[in-house]
Amino acid sequence: MCLHILWNILKYPKHIKYRQINKQALYNYLFEKCHTLCANFEKVLIYMENELKDFEFKKGYDNWYYQYDNIQLLYLWKCYRYWINRQIMYVFISLLLIKQMI
Fold it and tell me: Looking at the 3D structure of the chain, how many domains does it have?
């Protein structure tokens, strides 16, 4: 989910719709994914809300998260790279490459 949010902002930096997230839609999406994967929904929701804060999203009074234009795209790119490197597929490929170098 973090990759999806970050990619949309990086790909469309001027589009307002990618800088707004409806809390109820996020809740429903995460609930469905957690139920499917048998994950702890409460922990995932808290973690995702913390990540949104890290991406400079602010919780509005109208049940939406907003990100304002003053965020630096380079910072978001670093966050995106962080999340890419945490993906199992990329970690596995990196381990294979390291193994081949030895």
Answer: 1
